[in-house]
Automatic annotation (TrEMBL):
Keywords: Membrane, Transmembrane, Transmembrane helix. The chain crosses the membrane at residues 46-68, 80-97, 104-122, 152-172, 178-196, 228-245, 257-276, 296-313, 320-341, 347-366, 378-395, 401-422. The lineage of its organism: Bacteria, Bacillati, Cyanobacteriota, Cyanophyceae, Leptolyngbyales. The keyword DNA-binding does not apply. It comes from Leptolyngbya boryana NIES-2135. It holds the Pfam family DUF2157. The keyword Mitochondrion does not apply. InterPro entries: DUF2157. This is DUF2157 domain-containing protein. Residues 16-150 form the DUF2157 domain.
Length: 454
């Protein structure tokens, strides 16, 4: 009976051989049947579930015991107990993590150790300081051991601390809460390098969400009617995300596609919101309070980065394509209309019409992109935008019930037909690629029996 580690390594090698054309699909299938490749992940997941359940019950038992006797324990005893729990979990987790056979078990213990770290810190600090210190502690371990789980936990903890303390950070910050005023910069410094260090798409995605949500918060804190910041508020995150280019400093895995997907999602939500006429009838009077100018450095820095990234793209002709031109025009028109509406003259009729057109353009652009690269997400995102736009216009304006029901039925039928057409087109494209690969392999010259020998 072959070990699970041997079968996992053999499966990786066999997949590599198949990709290079060294073995055929039938040979790979024979290896898979003989060594049961399909059972490798199942066994690993089953073991992980058992370990997780066992540790959960152990943790519940320990926590229940401590809570039941917490009031009878002195402050010194509590500190010793929590410190012992912290060092015990992290020490045991680190020891197991170093052994490949028990590495996942060690990662679970390290996660519990991170929870113990928060329990220790909660004795001395609260609020934003607690979550910031807790998150930084988890980040230190994540950087040291390249643990994706702890990195995700750290981003979540710092985000919880920031948003639960938002009002105090922006209205009456004191001490460590002043750091929260520059949270976009802090998030970029703390989180983005970890995404590349761990090569984790999940950490990069959460990092970008953390950075740009904090940036929107900083923008909203300094908006005044006399400034151009309302226009900047609507486009800066999308401008940063679409122009993001990590090839300038990273020669490994690129996360640019994720950044651009986030930019399209942001623009879809923004254009959909601005497509309602009632948004523009109220003149957008959401800037009445006193601005918090201490968050201005983050806004200025990221606005400068966005300008620099777009100038770099414009200098490189190969980076300009139809999608980039469309996004650039959308950002420019959105800025002009927003600025004009707030500073020169209200546009209660023209503005919603324009943003409806931009929303249609974004949806059709997503569908066009999906047809060229065969990605289902882009196709269904475009279909969803079109459906939401049609339904929302029916609900917004005074139409008969018969018309609403008819349009909804038409939208449903159209979505089904479009989906079936896209799947058939995608299937035909994949079959054509498979035939082309098989023809290429059949045309490859046979290897010499003495090749590679001295």
């Amino acid at each position: 009976m072959h070990s699970e580690k041997f079968r996992r390594q053999l499966r990786q090698e066999a997949q590599h051989w198949r990709a290079n054309g060294d073995i055929s699909e039938s040979q790979f299938q024979k290896l898979s049947d003989r060594y049961q490749f399909d059972q490798v992940d199942h066994a690993s997941r089953f073991t992980l579930v058992l370990l997780g359940l066992g540790l959960s019950f152990i943790g519940i038992g320990v926590v229940t015991f401590i809570v039941a006797n917490w009031n009878g324990i002195s402050h010194l005893g509590r500190s010793v107990l929590l410190l012992g729990l912290f060092f015990g979990l992290n020490g045991g987790g680190l020891a197991l993590w170093k052994r490949s056979k028990y590495q996942r078990f060690g990662e679970i213990l390290l996660l519990f150790g991170a929870v113990a770290l928060g329990a220790n810190l909660a004795q001395y600090v609260t609020g934003f300081a607690l979550f910031l210190g807790w998150g930084i502690g988890c980040l230190a371990i994540a950087y040291g051991l390249r643990l994706k789980g702890l990195g995700i936990l750290a981003i979540a903890l710092i985000g919880i601390g920031y948003w639960t303390s938002w009002s105090q950070i922006y209205f009456s910050p004191t001490g460590i809460e002043m750091i929260g005023l520059q949270m976009p910069i802090v998030s970029a410094i703390l989180f983005l390098p970890l995404a590349y260090w761990c090569r984790s798409r999940a950490i990069f995605l959460l990092s970008e969400i953390a950075i740009h949500s904090a940036l929107l918060s900083s923008l909203a804190a300094i908006v005044t009617k006399a400034s151009v910041l309302p226009a900047l508020l609507t486009i800066l995150p999308a401008a940063l995300l679409w122009s993001y280019d990590d090839s300038l400093w990273s020669s490994g895995k690129s996360f640019q596609p994720i950044a651009r997907q986030l930019a399209v999602l942001f623009l879809g939500g923004l254009f959909f919101w601005f497509s309602f006429h009632w948004v523009w009838n109220g003149s957008l009077t959401w800037y009445t309070r006193i601005p918090e100018w201490r968050s201005l450095p983050s806004v200025v820095l990221f606005a400068g980065i966005a300008i620099g990234q777009w100038l770099y793209m414009l200098r490189k002709v190969r980076l300009i394509n139809l999608n980039t031109i469309g996004i650039g025009l959308s950002l420019g028109l959105s800025t002009i209309v927003n600025f004009w509406h707030l500073r020169i003259q209200p546009l209660p009729i023209f503005a919603p019409i324009l943003f409806n057109v931009l929303l249609i353009g974004l949806a059709l652009g997503s569908v066009r992109t999906s047809l060229s690269n065969g990605k289902r997400r882009a196709f269904w995102f475009g279909i969803l935008l079109l459906g939401l736009q049609i339904v929302s216009r029916l609900l917004e304006y005074d139409t008969t019930v018969l018309m609403k029901s008819f349009v909804c039925v038409v939208c449903g039928v159209s979505a089904i037909v479009a989906g079936l057409w896209f799947e058939s087109r995608l299937r035909s494209k994949m079959n054509s690629m498979a035939i082309a690969r098989s023809d290429y392999r059949s045309e490859k010259p046979p290897k010499s029996p003495t090749s590679g020998r001295i």
